[in-house]
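DUF262 domain-containing protein, Haloferula helveola. Tokens?
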Amino acid sequence: MEKEVTLPRSDEFEIQARSCTLFTNDRVPHDVLWRPGVRYRVPIFQRPYSWGIAEVHRLMTDLLMGYFGRNGRIPREQMFIGTMQLSAAETGSWGDYEIQHDIIDGQQRISTLILILKALQDLVPELSIWPRLDFQKRLTTAVSGKIQQDYLQRALETGADDLNDSAELNAYLRNLTGIRDQIRDDDEFDALKADIGSFVDYLCSRVYFVIIETRAPLSKTLQIFDAINTSGMELDGGDVFKIRYFEFLRKREGAAEEVFHEVSALYERIDRENSNQKRAVLEIGEVLALAQQILITDHELSNETRSLAGTTFFERLLDVSLGLQNWENFQPDKCRQVRLPLRFFSDLIGVLIEWDARLKQFRPEADAMIWFIWWSRYGRYHYLPAYFLHRFRDRSDRDTVAFQSELEEFVIELGKLLVVYSLRYQRVTNEGRQKARELMTLMSSNATHIEPTDVIAYLQLERAKCSGEIRERLLTDWIAHIPKAKNLVCRLVAMFTELEVDSEPENLGALLFETPIDIEHIESANHKDPMERERIHQDWGAELHQLGNLTVLEFDLNRSIGNHDYATEKRARYLAESRFRSVQTFAEENAEWNQERARARREALAERLTGYLCGPSPRGKEQRPASASVPV
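Tokens:
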């Protein structure tokens, strides 16, 4: 029965390194791995034992080469087989053992050495050293619940002759068989068997590890592992969060060690969903990014932490919460109030899976507005629709169809507001960021009486405030010289026509944003004829670069047309080759093109865009932009 374990204090940090042999060391008797009363454990968060026959064969070959002195080596030459990283010692009671270290790195080597000793014991079981080594009990594993420990025990208790089909899953037993076969096939097997004791002594006293023992919290121990493990697989942010969150649940919530399986189940759920969908529906980083924004809002944490990556945010939050390290903008008193139940992350995974499913059902305008959100200057707030879904999806009175309509309306209103703020200024502003934060506050768990309609009304009110300014910018700005503005407004104009011609166009967002396009000057700003170019600039003036003279056009088509006349060259190509209905409609209704027509189009489009972006949006139906008196 295991008793209470004494763990190192959370604020201690120490690294010790030394060279060790396995069991005996004539020079420094204490520097051995298997000291009396000491055992080792593969902790629950590690991967299973996974070395294959190739890795085992390579280690066994090196050991035999060192022992026999092959390839010009000295017989019984000292051998170094790598590093092992261990956690600080835990004290407790585990049968005959009072000290236990977790193996952070080195599981594969030490497990294989134990299997080698087992194979040697099977050959000569009467050696006097076996009881003192007690290698069968020196290693335990908590990986995969009891499964890996059962596999290890079976290998150490039954022997290779009992190999059957189950060994396909039992790497310990499979490798034990390979080791035994390699020993028997060795050219000097007879000499080896005749003096097994000498080979065992070699393994126990002449084979060296460098032991790195870290006295630090688990998360810091993993950071050290990541720093020194240059040949292994680097831990990414999601891997680190899994370990840190496990540590948090153990120390802050008093959870049992088995809670790691529940943490792992979160990751398995993501993998299962991606596998079922045969595409990357979501990653743990997306879950953490959404969780980050919700926690900052609900717990009134510093807004300065919103710009951090989700994995970095949680790394620092957990550091502060566990008292490991303070970070700028992470107030300790607030951080320690944050609760992180497993259900919180499980619910957010459900939210993002549901968001993906609902997105497929969006009507064309809402689908297109998702793209406009991403392409606005405020694309960093692309998570707000999922935030809305998180806030309102579990209302007991929710009507699924009605809520889908509310979600789409929220997306359309949000897209309009973010486009408005992208047109007002030529950069991301504090005012724009503040509006996003106000929106999240409105949707926080503390706002208990807020309904979806209240959030939508807020968006409508905020964009309506900007009507006059947006109209003026659309009328007067040289839109052609403002890349973000021209890309947004010209795509909106193209969207209007697509929705007018077909109320349910397929893949509207993809058409507008995945089709490689240019924003084309209908009257060429760089006419191929220098004399004509000079005349155009003199006659057209500012109108040449304003809204009325711009349109979307496929990239390849625009480059192949070049800077030719509209009437003699461009118009026919617009009609025959463009996929955009806005381009086709424009060409059909404009046999010729001049600055008067461009001025009229600019004024009409300015009114139309202002009305769409800043005007009222009737609830309960998809808004359709009103027809303009001139073609788009």
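The chain has four domains: 14-228, 236-360, 364-464, 470-614.
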